[in-house]
Each structure stands twice: as C-alpha cells, then as structure tokens.
Fold this sequence. Notes:
Elements: H1 11-36, E1 42-50, E2 55-63, E3 72-78, H2 89-97, E4 101-105, H3 135-142, E5 148-158, H4 160-172, H5 178-189, H6 203-210, H7 213-231, E6 236-240, H8 245-251, E7 254-258, E8 261-265, E9 270-276, H9 289-295, E10 305-308, E11 318-322, H10 332-339, E12 343-349, H11 366-378, H12 398-424, H13 446-467, H14 470-473, H15 493-522, H16 537-565, E13 569-571, E14 574-576, H17 581-607, H18 616-643, H19 647-653, H20 661-682, H21 686-703, H22 715-720
Parallel strand pairs: 3-4, 3-5, 5-6, 6-9, 9-12
Antiparallel strand pairs: 1-2, 2-4, 7-8, 10-11, 10-12, 13-14
Helix pairs in contact: 1-12, 1-16, 2-11, 4-8, 5-6, 5-7, 12-16, 12-20, 13-15, 13-18, 15-17, 16-21, 17-21, 18-20, 20-21
Amino acid sequence: MKRRFFSLSTREGCKHYALLFACLILIFSFMASMVQTSFGRVNIERVKFDARGAVQDGDLYTPAYTNSNSSLPCVVLSHGGGCTKDVMNGFAQELSRRGYVVLNVSSYGSGLSGQPMYDEDGSGVENMAVTSQGLWDAVNYVRTLTFVDPTKIIIAGHSQGGYRCGYAAMLDCPYFTLNDMLINFMYNEFGISFTEEEIAQDAFVLADQYLNEDQRKFFDAKSEEYSEYINTRIKGVVSIGNTGIGIVDALAPQKVSVAGHEVTRYLQTNIALLCGNWDHNYMSLADPVFPNSYFQTGDTLPVDTWVQVVNEADGTGVQLGDFDSASILDNNALLDAIEARSTRIVIPVDHATHSAEFFESFCESTAGKLVEYAQQVVDFNNGPLAEDQGIPADNIIWIVREYLNFAAMLSMLGFAVALIGWLLKGSYYAPVALEHPASNYIVYSKAQYGIFMVLIVIICTFCSYLCNNSMKMLSNPLVVLMPSNKFLPLDKTANFVYVYMSWSAILLLVLIAAYVLINKRIHNKNGLEILGIKMSRSAFLRTLLLSVVIFMACYASMAMIRYLFGQDYRLWMCVFTDMQLIHWTQALRYLIFLVPVYFVTNAAVNMVSLKEKKFVMPLIGTVVIGSLGVWINHAIHVIGMYTGSDPTNFYVNLISEGSVTGATIIFVPITIFVSRICYKLTKSIWTGTFLCSFLTAWMWVSAISSTNIYMGSTFLERMLGF
C-alpha cells in the first residue's frame, strides 16, 4: 500500500507536514511584512531609549526616503491598559503609508519596556498611578530626531493610552497663550502693571506703548523664544476610546495669573475624542459637564464638528465646520484655530466597541478617522494637502497584515502538531504515546454525546457572559478577581480571561463528576481510564519534556519571523510575541493556575466522543461545539450593535460589551484543537494540558502589560516576584 506523502501516521509524513508548515510560516510572515512596510516604501526599526533608568521599547516607522534634511510630521502612539504597543500596529501602518514618522511605543512596564522607579509624573515605587507612563519621554525622544518637524507632533492613545495622552499633554503644553506669556514677561521683568482690560489686548501693541528701545529689543528676543517654545509643543492630542480622568483633566480649563489678574485658560493644544458609539466610555459624553465645561457649547455636545474653545469662562465655543467636509484648505477659521491650538472635537466611530476600535473587521475604521484628523492638524498626507498626492483616509489595508499574521499563527500550530507526531515516532518519546484496552472505552450514544456537548455550550456561554462585561463583572458576586501583585503582576485585562477559565474549569469539573457517577451506575466504570492520567514516572517526565520542546520550537519560530520580517503571531487580542527573561519567570508563576485549569478542560474535551472511523470531522465538531459559547456571546454582541438604537440603554441589558471577546473567540478554539490533537496522538490528556498551559502563559505575559504594580529593581523582586 502506497504511503501518503503527508500523514501523521508515519514519521516521514510528519516531517513533510512540519516542513510544509514551516514554509507557510515564512511565506505568510514575509507577505505580512510587505503589507506593513507598504512594499518597501516604509522602514520599520526597533528602537530602545532610556530617559530615566528604564529602557523603553518601540517601533519607529519612517518613509524610505527619510534623511537628515527631511522635516516630517510625527505621531507617537500609546496602547491601552493590559496590552502592549503591537495592538496599535494598524494605526502606525496607516499613518506611515501617508508619509508620517510614527513611534509606536510600549509604556513603562509593558512589553519589553522597563519600569523606572519614577516616571515623568513621579508615579512609581510608592504609587503606581496611571499617568504619562513614558509617553512624554517618547515625545521628547522623537524631538531629538533630525528628520522630525518639532512643530508637527501628535500623540494618540487608546483606552488607558488616552489617559497617558492627557497627562503627557499637561506636562508638555502650557495653559498660557503666547500673548499671556509676553504680558507676564513685561509684568515680571520690567514691573509694568496692566489693567484687566489691557491683558486682553495684543502684547506687541502694549510693548509699543510701554517699553523703551532697549526693553523692546529684549521683548522681541523673548517673543521669538516663547514662540518657538509654544510651536514645538504637542500640536494634537487624540484620545481613542477614552473620555476618562486623564483626558478630562487636559480638557478642563484652569485658573492662571496674567499680570496679577486671575483668568481662565485652556490647555494650548488641539484635542480630539475619538470613540466608538458602542464603547462603554461613549456614554459619559452625555453628561452635561462635557458641553458646558469643556467645549462651551451649551447643553448640547456637537459631534463630528470642529469647535474652537475660547479662554474666557463665560464665553462660548465657536463651531467651525463638519469633520468630514471642513478642510484647512478652504476654511481659514479652522486653519487659524488649529494653529492657535484651540480646537476640540468629538469623533464617533459607528458600530465600534472598546476593543473593536483597534480591530475594525466589523465596524467603521478608527484608523481612518485618526488619519483624517491628523492630516488637518498638521496639513500632511504624503506632502501638504494642497499638493493632493495623499492616500484617502478611507483607504485602509492594515487588516490584511493582521490576517496574514493569523495565517502564520495557524501554521505554527500545524508545525507543532507535526513535530509532536515526528518525535513520538522516535524511540525516546515513544513511551509518551499510550494504548488503552478496548474494555476501557465507553461507547456513548448520539443522545448522550449531544447532551454532554449542549451542557458544555451552556457552561461556556455563561462563563463568557461573566467575563465579557466589565461594568457588570466588578459588581458580580460570582466573580473573584485575581489581584495584581509582584508575584502575579499582570494588569486587570488578565482578570477577564482568568474569570472565564476558572469558572469554566469549576463547572466542567461538576459536569465530569456527574458523568463519572452515571458511568459507574450504568457501565460499572468511571470513563476516566481512557484519559491516560495514570502513567509511569518516566513517561510523565518525557511527556513534560516533549511539551517543553514543542513550546520552545513554537517560540523559536516566532523569534525567527520577528528577526527576519519584524512579525509575530497575532489576531486581534490573541497574541504570541517576544518575551524577555522577566516574562519567562512570570509565565512559570502563572502555570500554577493554568495547569490545573487545563487539566480539567482537557479531561472534559476528551472524555466523551463518538466512535468514528475518521478523526477530522469529530475534531472539527469538538472545536466548534467547545467554542460555540464564546462565539454565541460575540454574535449577540455584534448583532446587538447593528440592531440596537440606543447604545446607553443597550449596554445596561447587553450580555457582552466585548471586553475580552477578541481573545476568547480565538484562543478557545486553538486550545481545544491542541487538546484534541494531542490526545489523538498520545491517548493522554497530559501533553495537551502542558502545551495549552504553556501557550496561554506565553500569550498572557507577552501581550498583557504590568503597569499597575511596581515590580522592583532587584533580581528577587523582578524575576521571582518576591
């Protein structure tokens, strides 16, 4: 009988599969790199810089033609809480395609960025507050680049990154106008008193009136110094998916003293709130405090409308035009307001929830909105707007790169399976593959199998509901959150997955116990014998070693494509990327939780199955059924967005706001697939338990940040969590 070229039944077939999937990893990653670099027209460099005793990690995007004579606008990006810079890759890619310099940086304590004792705001050892967390340091870094125009710098951050933008802007931008600063100069330097009416006049007119010739020369020199200072401050601030305290503080007017008179002034920069209309933060915009206090437009907050704020407390905001149609090319009032750094705007994104704002496969493009805003603020889209050579804001292609990264991820899983098969057919790992006598198997009817699967769907749907609504989760008595501490330092994003996994394990354990009792009663055996839980110590240790080898091979494949193409494995919030030493030790700690959880779920997934000659269809069926709970939850979430008329009311009753959907809808089917295929090859749940635990720990510690806890500076603190 002729052997199949690709087969998991033979060592040669496994080798062929491994080579095929290795090639696919390289091909998909190369294609992703081409898309991300706009087919060579954009350079992406991994950069590291140290402003205060901790190295920050970032990706610097520059047009291929960039040189020391270039003077290009720059956007500095800041990711949200519980993730790293790479979730902002789509924004970076779209801006860089249009000729911007982009620095996409991981905040202090996130990704490969270190954690200083104190950040720019003094947050650190005693109090790890969410402040700038390295964003202002990143802005000051790009100011050192000769090819960046310091007068055209924008910062944009998603979620917690919006907080950072607000705090960075308050550190960087003055509340005083240039006119205020010049009047204060004359008041402080020459002792000239001004009336309350005079401080509203042009400082240059006042200088002509009050200064002598020598004083005027000093004044003119100082005016140039002040002008340069103001013009090189952050020109635009974009808070994506966040209307919270950080950005609100930046929006709020402040009392300042001009020539001894107390006046109200706004932060001297342009600010945009870019938020999905189904984002839970969008509802806060309905609060009257926004139009009355921050935009001065009365009781109604205009959306998609440029507004110029005025500095007097009793003044009113001036509406300058519609966001989609107004342009600095033909709207001089808008141009003047932007140059005066006095615009405010709320930009809604249709059908976008919080996490969907950086993954727009089913909603309006947030990246396109950011591009549209940036090009007005800095007059640039592959050159000045008047030259009309830019890429339209609705031409968004970054999602192609994301899907290619996902294809590489699936290929990595295929490579892992083939490698397991190849190693099992060698002499050393052969004892890992068990054989069970036919008498150990229980043949379940389709009805019994169906009941078991339906119960699994119900359990997973319920658990997905528990973890996918952050507004309800915190007040739910069924939810016990994993506290962030030095030993388990990941931010609260890990809690969403932790809640899903822990409750799934508890309820599946109850289901397993029920089936064991039924099996004992009907078949006089518990049905657990086929799970291969019992094995010799030697076989168990080799099983563990096999899982470690496979995991290291997966990580090595990621390291290879990161080195060759600057890519990793990702789709939305399911990410496998590079780690440093501290992450490896963190992963070992989280295995304390993950191994028992996956032991239970692997037992549930493999305990009951129909007797089929072919393995592929039962495998697909198990993956689909096991994932149906999170998919149902996500489907209700998406359908609700497109059918609901009132986001505020809809969220009160919604099963899910999608807080962690982006991870569960992907990693749940992946881990079920790994579990089933490992059991097929070894007739034991241990390989699947270990490998799923390793992969999940990798995903957690490489993609979830640790910004809420100061992890210390000594070896014991940082590496061991003590």
